[in-house]
Amino acid sequence: MKKTVLICSISVLVGILLTFSNVQAIGSDVIFEGNAKNFIEIKNSSFLFGNFNDLYPNIDLTRTLEIHDPSTKNAQIYIRARAVKTEYQPLLKQISLYVLDESGNIISSSNDLSQKIFLCELEGGQEKSLKLRMHINSKASKQLNSTYQKIEWIFSANELTETSISDIPKTNGDSVVYPVTVISLVSFLLTLILAEKTKYF
User: Fold this and answer.
1) Which secondary-structure segment (H or E) carries 14?
2) Burial group, residue 74, by CB count within 10 angstroms (0-12, 13-18, 19+)
């Protein structure tokens, strides 16, 4: 009896864990590559576009992204999409994506969502608010009535290494001030010599 209760309890526990895992797995349509999660926050949602239903041709959907750079390095932020299954691959060609700044100006756009789309470049500690506008093309198929569990959106961040000190143009006496000073002194001395010579003629 005790063995049966134990087995049932374990089964229930495993079922709960599996259910929780599945909820976590399908709780978003966003994937963060590497440390991209440190830079990006989707405003008021864990979804990008996967929670919109009844999509139809020529519709536009917008999401706001809060992007911040917690490090001291510069970083370039990108997004791309991929189909969850091969059968959904054609859907990527039925969507256009536009990246807009806070003023509504288009930063970049693409009809090929499988390629990285540039979002922005950040300096250390900088923050930006961007909008992503997904446009459903006029020839979109009925299969695209929702992107949920069909398309995943992948964010990536490319942290830029600091410029080598040797590559930075110097403005101290070693490279700029020193030559200018020498030239000035030489010119001054030549002027004095010529002035002295003219006294004797």
Assistant:
1) helix 2-25
2) middle
* pLDDT tens for the chain, residues 1 to 201: 555 544 444 443 434 433 333 333 347 899 999 989 999 999 888 999 999 988 899 999 999 999 998 888 899 999 999 999 999 999 999 999 999 999 999 999 999 999 999 999 988 889 999 999 999 999 888 888 999 999 999 999 998 875 432 333 333 333 333 343 444 555 655 666 665 655 555
DSSP 8-state code for residue 23: H
Spatial contact of 127 and 115, defined as CB atoms under 8 Å apart: no
The DSSP call for residue 164 is P
CA distance 174 to 171: 8
Residue 162, beta-bridge partner list: none
Q: Is there a contact between 133 and 109 (Cβ–Cβ < 8 Å)?
A: no
Q: With contact defined as beta carbons under 8 Å apart, do 132 and 118 qualify?
A: no
Mention every residue, 6+ apart, whose C-beta is less than 8 A from residue 55.
Answer: 61, 136, 140, 144, 145, 146, 147
Cα four-point dihedral sign 100, 104, 107, 113: positive
Q: Extract the tokens encoding 39.
A: 């830079």
| Strands 151-159, 30-32: pairing kind | parallel
- Is the overall model pTM greater than 0.85, yes or no? no
Dihedrals phi, psi of 154, to nearest 5 degrees: -115, 120
Q: Which domains does the chain have, with CATH numbers?
A: 27-158 (2.60.120)
